[in-house]
């Protein structure tokens, strides 16, 4: 799994846990719906850390909480 795929799946996982839609998440995070939609559909695979920080702030979690998931274990080598 790539880091982009793991981020995408983690965002969807957090939305499910909190019973909110991706649109609802975009509203509480102050991220445009199109940006978040591009991330969760896989159109954007290089999510910037400041975007992840906004998601964390909106969900009231830390960056450590975001990345504390088995999804981020055994990621593919990015340098080939």
How far the N terminus sits from the C terminus, by CA atoms, comes to 14 Å
Order of SSEs: HHHHH
Count of distinct strands: 0
Residue fraction in strands: under 5%
Biggest beta sheet attributes: none
Radius of gyration: 12 Å
Taken from the alpha-carbon principal axes, the silhouette is globular
Instruction: Enumerate how many helices there are, as a single number.
Output: 5
Q: What percent of the residues sit in helical stretches (DSSP H or I)?
A: 55-70%
Uncertain runs: none
Structural class: mainly alpha
Instruction: Write down the overall mean pLDDT.
Output: 94
Explain what this protein looks like in three dimensions.
- Helices cover 60% and strands 0% of the residues.
- With 80 residues, it is mostly helical.
- The protein is globular.
- The protein starts with a helix and ends in a 13-residue tail after the last helix.
Sum up the structure in keywords:
single chain; mainly alpha; 80 residues
